[in-house]
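Example 3.2
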Amino acid sequence: QVQLVESGGGSVQPGGSLRLSCAASGFTLDMYAMTWVRQAPGKGLEWVSTIFSGGNSAYADSVKGRFTISRDNAKNTLYLQLDSLKSEDTAMYYCARGGSTSNYRGQGTQVTVSS
């Protein structure tokens, strides 16, 4: 049974940092592309970043240079390091197995950036 559990969200001031985690079970994480998506209040789902099974990664222009996706294969856990946070990064963040339209998605973790 595929399960994804996000954690690490919280409230930070602009310019702050957070590290999101996504604990995976029921499959081997590094055999799949893994994606982070987010949804801001009143907006649609937005793709943030993907790490491919071979290790390459891709980022949305809005987060490039500020966010870093990674994984720990031994822990079967996906991460998203969020640095230089802006108010527009406020959203619920979800990890997904595969791409942004995957049916395999966690319950999300809230990130709020506010002064």
